[in-house]
Write a structure and sequence with these properties.
The protein is about 45% helix and about 15% strand. It is of the alpha+beta class. The strands form 4 sheets. An 8-stranded mixed beta barrel has the order 3-4-5-14-12-11-6-15. Strand 8 and strand 9 form a beta hairpin. Helix 5 packs parallel to helix 8. It is globular.
């Protein structure tokens, strides 16, 4: 009995002694944790005060989500899962695959801080807080840029209305869970555009960067147009250039003869660069051949950014107007039901970029001349010869829709905005809108329509309109949009148009229409097509991508 009590007493004493020894360690750990929390709190309060928070030269940008995340945790560190930290570092180091810059996400500073924190024998609350906060800001930035883009499209184009917003509370919950569970990679994969177009452009970026790493491509000297059947020393340079990006099986790289195989390779190149595929190397083709690979890489980066603006939550059914590509597609459930060549706005009357919904179409439309065209084109033509009105099947009407005798008007008095009447073109084959138009509400008075100027569809570059989109094969488009073959098929649509009567037909369901401007886009096979920047819009986006974030 005594022995038993003695044994218990000795065990109790030993436990008590160990507990006393642990008290300083526990107290130190608690003190250290509090110090880190306090350091994080101080940094968050700096942000909340409206002051800049700069950590070793890196400015923290997240002034909403980051503070909310730490407040939910009572300012405790977030990055306690080593797997999450590794995933974030991997993501930042590889973000150039999306055409973004790893340094926008504090890579160098984070690597330095991680080394400093890991090499210290004891916890440095300030450095630990710096690393935790900067890791969080890096992830927030990365997520936002993949989901919304680095460059604000509204700053570049006030017409932009394809906006996305992020719910701050949802972002906090998503970030907190991803970091705690070590699923940062899954979170970033979810916010990155999932559309196949985006993956095609990522592949193209990797391909052209590999070309650049291997030395790029040589130039082709200037000179007369090179054509099939010719023999010219410049053909050797042409073969060498095309061998970098085109398949030329069995070609003799040192042959100066422009043979059929080389002509086919030139045609492939021309189609992939939005040029007339005639197989001859004239000025336009030569200029495209001699664009440096670095410029093509920048062009792909710019269009990856454009895709981040719009390729999230795409509807199952939509019409895509590719302004720089001069074409229109109607897509449903991932399948292209209809595509056609298009004519878009001239460089000084640019087709705007925006999103709307096609709600109805109009057969045998009248055309009321818009203010800009009235001022710049129609009034000057009438002043030169009043017969212009009759030639164009136009009438002058007042705002009560009464027809006005044009000879009763002193045309010299008016320059445009002060003109007290409307000028309307009656329906007919020569109407500026053709025989059918497709309407979607927008402030620009822009829509899709038929055109009497059908010969212009044969041109490679088709920037001819005053802002609207002229489309080929509009009857087929109408049949697909109306989606009612019993009532509206090719025969009944043609009959309605041949009646010469203006008729409005509402679609059974509105269809989203996106007017977009992409200077690089994949074709049906996944190869990318480089297009002309007809409106000069790439430079602003590239400057934004290359700018340092503050």
């Amino acid at each position: 009995m005594v022995g038993s009590c003695r044994k218990v007493s000795m065990t109790a004493c030993l436990a008590g002694a160990l507990l006393l020894l642990c008290y300083p360690l526990l107290a130190f750990a608690e003190s250290s944790d509090r110090a880190v929390n306090d350091a994080i709190r101080a940094r968050v309060e700096t942000l909340q005060s409206g002051s800049d928070l700069v950590i070793q030269g890196a400015t923290v940008a997240s002034t909403t989500v980051l503070p909310a995340l730490y407040q939910r945790r009572d300012f405790a560190p977030v990055w306690t899962n080593p797997s999450a930290i590794k995933q974030l570092f991997d993501a930042v180091r590889n973000i150039d695959e999306d055409g973004l810059d790893p340094e926008d996400y504090h890579l160098a500073t984070l690597e330095k801080l991680q080394t400093e924190v890991g090499s210290e024998a004891s916890v440095n609350p300030a450095r630990t807080a710096d690393l935790d906060v900067l890791l969080t800001d890096s992830l927030v930035r990365l997520g936002y840029h993949l989901l919304i883009g680095k460059v604000d499209p509204v700053e570049l184009d006030g017409n932009w209305n394809v906006n996305r917003t992020i719910n701050g509370r949802d972002a906090v919950l998503a970030l907190s869970s991803a970091i705690a569970e070590g699923s940062v990679d899954n979170l970033l994969a979810a916010v990155r555009p999932q559309h196949i177009y985006y993956r095609h452009l990522q592949n193209a970026l990797a391909h052209y960067r590999a070309i650049a790493a291997a030395g790029g491509w040589p130039g082709v000297p200037a000179g007369p147009t090179l054509k099939s059947g010719m023999s010219d020393p410049r053909v050797i340079a042409l073969r060498t250039r095309l061998a970098v990006t085109q398949r030329m099986p069995g070609a003799d790289a040192q042959s100066a003869q422009f043979d059929a195989a080389l002509e086919d390779a030139v045609k492939v190149f021309q189609r992939q660069h939005g040029l007339a595929a005639d197989g001859a190397v004239g000025k336009a083709t030569l200029a495209a051949l001699n664009i440096p690979v670095e410029s093509r890489i920048d062009q792909i980066r710019v269009n990856l950014e454009r895709e981040r603006w719009v390729l999230h939550d795409m509807p199952e059914e939509f019409v895509l107007v590719d302004i720089a590509g001069f074409n229109v597609r109607y897509i449903r459930d991932g399948q292209t039901l209809w595509q056609a060549r298009a004519q878009v706005g001239k460089p000084y009357r640019r087709t705007p970029v925006f999103k709307s919904r096609i709600t109805y179409l109009e057969m045998n439309p009248t055309w009321t001349v818009p203010p800009t065209i009235l001022r710049n084109d129609v009034l000057p033509a009438i002043k030169r010869d009043i017969a212009y009105l009759k030639q164009k099947n136009m009438k002058v009407i007042d705002y009560d829709h009464n027809v006005v005798d044009p000879t009763s008007i002193d045309w010299s008095r008016y320059s445009g905005p002060d003109f007290p009447y409307l000028i309307r073109q009656d329906p007919g084959p020569d109407n500026a809108l053709g025989r059918i138009k497709f309407m979607f509400p927008n402030k620009h008075l822009v829509y899709l329509h038929d055109t009497p100027s059908k010969a212009l569809f044969e041109r490679t570059e088709r920037a001819f309109s005053s802002g609207c989109i002229r489309v080929e094969n509009p009857y087929q488009f109408a049949e697909l949009l109306l989606d009612d073959p019993n009532t509206w098929n090719r025969r009944t649509i043609t009959q309605a148009i041949d009646s010469q009567q203006t008729r409005k037909v509402t679609l059974p369901r509105p269809v989203t229409v996106l007017l977009l401007y992409w200077t690089v886009a994949p074709d049906d096979s996944g190869d990318v097509i480089f297009k002309q920047d007809i409106y000069g819009r790439d430079a602003g986006i590239l400057a934004g991508l290359n700018s340092e974030l503050s």
